[in-house]
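Figure S4 source data
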Amino acid sequence: MTHDKLLSLEERRTKYSVPALEKGLDVLEYLSDQAVPLTQAQLARALNRQAGEIFRMLACLESRGYLRREPTTGAYSLTLKLFELSRAHSPYEVLLKAAQPLMRGLAEDLRESCHLSVLHRERVLVLAQEESPKPFRLSVEVGSQHSPVHTTSGRVLLSSMEPGECEELLTHDLEWRREKPAVRAQFLKRLAAIRARGYERSEGERFVGGLDIGVPVGSPGSSIKAALTIATLKEKNGPSLETMLPALRTCADVIAVHAGLKPEEEARSATSPHSGTQVRPV
């Protein structure tokens, strides 16, 4: 094994740093995170740079079509160019095409919102969502990123990884590193339980009355790992776990088969005559 392969990600970043490129990426990432137009002075202050340092960077990004400058305020915002580039060769394109019509059918049949998530840079990234047709419903922003430890989708995704791979990913999570060894051990036991039963359920994790149920999409060895999660409000006469889980599993299996993440013969609910649920695309 070469010395370079032994270096940590942070060490490699330091060793091979390209300052100009780092500045440009800092600008793009910060604007993406803030989601509002910002002036040159505001960006410089937020990134701890001199205004003159990023002037040429902003001009370059604007000329290449990544940024747009508002003529009245002079504030910069992202254009759709990054989105277009990501869509051109997205590894999730096939997954999304397979998932969206099936998720729409699931949301209409159960009258509950559902979303599809993957792990991206040690965070849970929401790829797609279909909202419940009910007037009161939960909504998760597509493109938003969340903790892999403190979300149902995150724990489902972590449980589908090999133990060594999972623990390596967790070392990059600041909250995880702050936890006591006993808490970490208990969490890993929870992941093992999720892996064994094939789903995760949590109540009131984000707010009182919230109920999340998530299942994995695809086989454990898939190169792309995804989680399909129902997010709902716990209601007195709302659907039970026994009602939602079979439909959720069926939908996840059909998505996996259609996206090529699971052979049809491996699909549990998709081919089971006892599932009692048919997922229909809309």
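Figure S5 source data
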Amino acid sequence: VYRDDRVTTLSQNNTTTTQTYNLNGSDIGDVELSARYQLTQGRNGGPIFVAGARVKSTTGIGPFDVERDAQGVAMELATGSGFWAVQGSLSMLYPTDPAVFFANVSYMYNAPASIDQTYGAVTVGEVDPGDSISVGFGFGFSLNPRFSYSLGYSHSYVMPTETELNGTPQRSTELQVGALQLGLSFRATERLTIATSVDMGLTEDAPDVRVGLRMPYRW
């Protein structure tokens, strides 16, 4: 994982004074292991259901492991979440040539951890990251045997995080992350597929725009 962020902050005593600085970080991310199992075959025009499970490790540098200055301000970016997580999901596919309707629902459990470290004047005790519930739906449409596009919507509800600061429990606000998703897929060869995706945030907690590029190769 390679990250580079530019942050601009306002002075607490002067709303016209700003400070801009750059943070970066590079290291291995959180290694994940996932498995999927097709529950139904979609016979007689029925939908196809697929169950999934995912486990996320803590191999990346977590937010409480990054280098900090004497005041406890981070001097680099994390490459992982710092917490173990387990996710279960259920997806539905309903083919109706030349389109395929899809929907999915998932729940992610983030395991709490005891940090027990002091940053500046603050001692962080146990941190319990909020779990999340996600749903999504949409359709994919094939224009020819090699090119297709998809349009969908995804929404995640992230529960509040509970953090123990100087022995006092603190609770963050919940997050509502909704995005409109547009995807394009082109089968370049029998083994290589090029896929792009654009997510446009529709809620305050969602990123404004997120662009992705994937090139899965089948051996």
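The CA atoms of residues 17 and 37 lie 56 Å apart. DSSP finds no helices and 15 strands in the chain.
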